Amino acid sequence: WGGARADRAPYGQHLRIAGQSVASGIGLLANSRLEVRNRSFRRFAADVGIDASATDPTQRVRFELYGDGRLIAQTDWLGFGQKAEALRGDIAGRSILELVVRTAEPTARPVPVTWGSAALLQ
Questions:
Q1: Do residues 4 and 32 lie in contact, with contact meaning Cβ atoms separated by under 8 Å?
Q2: Taking a C-beta distance cutoff of 8 angstroms, is the pair 119, 48 a contact?
Q3: Which of 92, 111, 7, 1 is nearest to 43 (CA)?
Q4: Backbone angles phi, psi at 92, to 5 degrees
Q5: How many Å apart are CA 48 and CA 82, to the nearest integer?
């Protein structure tokens, strides 16, 4: 089905949200979880949305950031063609971060999503 990709959508295309190119980030499929280890970073930031390579324009997704199993931040439900939404979170003191994307409804086709400009910051 395609997996997590650095600076590319899950199937190899350039990252794009609502027709806008995204220079860097992580391409994943919705209903996924990516674990990131954190040692001393204090903040997480990304501009997130459904990737333009999606084939089902009816799906909606929600992006969630967890730290050590606790929800830190989440977006509202986002639809295809919707501009990227900023997702920010305080991750100070959290060892394990989880980047999670959920679909609003079950889907037969995976929904490609973009964690644009994803960064761990001081």
A1: yes
A2: no
A3: 92
A4: -55, 130
A5: 10
